[in-house]
Amino acid sequence: MDKLIVHGGTTLKGSINISGAKNASLPILAAALLTADDVIIRRVPDVSDTNYMIQILSALGAEVERSSGTVRINAANIISDAPYELVRKMRASICVMGPLLARLGKAKVSLPGGCVIGDRPVDLHLKGLRAIGAVIDMEGGNMDMSAPDGLTGDEVDLRGKHGPTVLGTDNLMMAAVLAKGTTIIESAACEPEVVDLADFLNSMGAKIEGAGTRRITIQGVEKLHGVEHTIIPDRIEAGTYMVAGAMAGCRENGITLNRVNQEHLEPVTEKLIEAGHQVKFNDAGNSVTVKPGSEPKGCSITTAPHPNFPTDMQAQFSSLFAVTPGISIIEDTIFPQRFMHCAEMTRMGADMQVDNGKAVITGVEQLSAAPVMASDLRASAALVLSALTAKGSTEISRLYHIDRGYEHIDEKLLQLGANVERVRE
Ligand code: EPU
C-alpha cells in the first residue's frame, strides 16, 4: 500500500494538463456493451476505477485493449453475469446493468455494499429499469434482472429524496436506447457527465434529446454501431487543482490548468472568487490560471445537483476554508454524512465542527503536519491540499483512495513544484 508524504510550504507554479473525467469514463466504458462493433474511447484517465471497469468488461467477455489514454472495446460476445469479486470494488459497476439488459435482455449484478460517504441506495435505478419492463429479483446479494417481454419505453420520474441521480439517469438512458418506443426521464440528472454519455450514445446511433436538462427523451432504436469518442475534461480534478492554486499558488503568476471546460467549472470559479481569489480563463475557456488573493475570506457553500456546487468539491473547499480568515459553512445536501475529512484535518489543527450534514469552519493561521488517513477519494484530495500549506511533512496513508480518481497526482504535483513523495508502506 502506498502513502504520500507531502513536505508543506512550497509555492506552486507552472502548468499541468487536466485528465479526462473519471465519472464520464465509467458509464461510457459500460455503454460500449451496447454494440457488437468496435468502440474507441480517448482520454480515459489512468485511475483504478477505470481499470476496475475495464476488468469488468473483460470478465463479461468483451475484448479490451488499452494504450495510454485510448481504450478500444469490442463487445461482440458477452455474457450477462458481472462477477461479484470485481463489482464489489466499485459502486459505479452498477452502470453495466442498463447496457446488459438492453443488449441481452438479462443482467446479474451484485448489489453494491456500504459506502463511506453515506447511504447510497439503488432504488431509483431499479425504479427506472422496472418502468421500462425489467423484472428484478433480489437473491443472494444479487440483482437478477430480465426483460421477458422486451423493454418498452415509458415515462418515469427519477427524483429521490436528495434530488436526481446521476448513475440512475445513465442506467435508464443506456437501457432505453434499445427499447421499443419512447422513454421520458423526468427529474433527470443534468451533470456534464450525463451529457457526455448522451453524446456518446447519439454518436452510436441513439436518439436522445434533452440531456443536460431535467427532462430527457429517448426514442428507442433497433441497433447501435461503433464510434470514436473523446471524454470531457474532469471538472472535479480541475476544481481540486484550482483550490491548490488558491491555497499554495505563486502570488505573481499562480498556476495554470490546461484542457479544462470553463462552463463546467462555473460553481467552483464563483466560490473561489467569492473567497477572494483570482481566477482567469483564456478566451477559448479551455485554460485557467488561479492565484491566491491578498484578502481571502470565508464563505458558505451548499452542495446541490448541477449546475449548483458539486458535492465532489466540498471536501477540497473545507481545506481552503480551514486556513481562510473568518467563519465558513459547508452544507452537503446530497451526501450529508460526507465529512470524514474533517476529523483528519482537525488532527492537523483545523477548527471544524460537524453536525447534521453541516461543517462550521473557523479559519486558523496555519495547519501543522500529522499522520493522517485517507477515507475516500475526495477526502484524500482534501488532505493533500491541507498538507501542501501545513507546517512540516504530512504522511497520508491509504493512498489507494486517491488513485481511484486522480490520474498520477504525485507527478502532477511535482510538475507544479510541490515537494511530495510516494512511498510504499
Ligand atoms: N440516491 C437514491 N437512490 C438511488 C440513487 C441515488 O436515493 O437509487 C441518492 C444518493 O444516496 C444521493 C443522491 O441520490 O443522496 C445522488 O446520488 P447519485 O445517484 O447522483 O450518485 P451516483 O450517481 O452514485 C455520482 C458520482 C459521485 C457523485 C454523485 C453526485 C460517478 C461514478 N459517481 O454518483 O462521484 O458524488 O454522482 O454528484 O459518477 C466521486 O467521484 O468522488 C463520487 C462519489
Task: Write up this protein.
Helix 1 (22-31) packs parallel to helix 7. The protein has two domains: 2-15 and 234-424, Enolpyruvate transferase domain (UDP-n-acetylglucosamine1-carboxyvinyl-transferase, Chain); 23-230, Enolpyruvate transferase domain (UDP-n-acetylglucosamine1-carboxyvinyl-transferase, Chain, Alpha-beta prism), CATH 3.65.10. With 425 residues, the protein is α+β, with helices and mostly antiparallel strands. The strands form six sheets. A four-stranded mixed sheet has the order 21-22-1-23. 31% of the residues lie in helices and 25% in strands. Bound molecules: uridine-diphosphate-2(N-acetylglucosaminyl) butyric acid. Uridine-diphosphate-2(N-acetylglucosaminyl) butyric acid is lined by residues 23, 26, 91-92, 119-125, 160, 162, 165-168, 189, 193, 311-312, 334-335, 377-378, 405.
Write a compact overview of the structure shown.
It contains 14 helices and 23 strands. It has 425 residues and is α+β, with helices and mostly antiparallel strands.
